[in-house]
Amino acid sequence: MTDVKICGLREPAHVALAAEAGARYVGFVFFPRSPRAVTPADAAALSLHVPVGVAQVGLFVDPDDAILDEVLAVVPLDIIQLHGHEDPVRVAAIKARTGLPVMKAVGISGPEDLGQLTDYSLVADLLLVDAKPAPGAALPGGNGLAFDWRLLQGRRWLRPWLLAGGLTPDNVAEAVRLTRAPGVDVSSGVEAAPGVKDKDLIRSFITAARG
Ligand SMILES: O=C(O)c1ccccc1NCC(=O)[C@H](O)[C@H](O)COP(=O)(O)O
């Protein structure tokens, strides 16, 4: 069954619903410019609603050690997601410093981007295969932008991976069928407006993704 990550959660009720509906991962965004951003204190409160067995993922963009330490002091994260320009050396350093598994996001727009997945698979524990943001995009992720999923057909990596970028309740089953992704990640595709999650969309996304 496909693993599902619901990213950018900000409401306790949405965290609880995602877990009940079968999400394996819930994501909290620690990137102040995002409409989905939470503070460490917000995330600490949200984490109380995450049942055992559901992994708590902290999303960071080029974090320095201070922000990692600040968050980890109060939020019991299970996985660090890196969504910036962290190179493999920095990924390895963050993994060593935090002692947590790292999920590295790699932006894809064409076949020339696929090599990075191999590079990062040598240091990251999980890969997030996402759409590359359009030039000048306000955010490095969470833009609701899809890429050509056929680029991934027949590809295999050393690490478990999740497909992301522009997934919705309507297209996720087809995306999984085409790519054979073992996991999927969504944010804007389950929102009524940027940063505002929708319960019905969360539920129908998880149902559609898990088949
Ligand atoms: O969601 C954000 O605001 C965000 C900000 C900065 C970096 C990454 C961000 N989001 C990434 C994700 O939520 C997901 O991992 C993934 O890219 C799916 O996004 P979407 O296309 O909106 O479903």
From TrEMBL:
Molecular-function annotations in GO: phosphoribosylanthranilate isomerase activity
Keywords: Amino-acid biosynthesis, Aromatic amino acid biosynthesis, Isomerase, Tryptophan biosynthesis
EC number: 5.3.1.24
Pathway terms, separated by semicolons: Amino-acid biosynthesis; L-tryptophan biosynthesis; L-tryptophan from chorismate: step 3/5
Enzyme's top EC category: isomerase
InterPro entries to which the protein is assigned, alphabetical: Aldolase_TIM, PRAI_dom, RibuloseP-bd_barrel, TrpF_fam
Known catalytic reactions: N-(5-phospho-beta-D-ribosyl)anthranilate = 1-(2-carboxyphenylamino)-1-deoxy-D-ribulose 5-phosphate
Pfam family membership, one: PRAI
Domain N-(5'phosphoribosyl) anthranilate isomerase (PRAI): 4-207
Source organism, top-level taxon: Bacteria
Gene Ontology BP term (one): L-tryptophan biosynthetic process
Family indicated by similarity: Belongs to the TrpF family.
HAMAP family: PRAI
Protein name per its UniProtKB record: N-(5'-phosphoribosyl)anthranilate isomerase
Species annotation: Paracoccus tibetensis
Gene name per UniProt: trpF
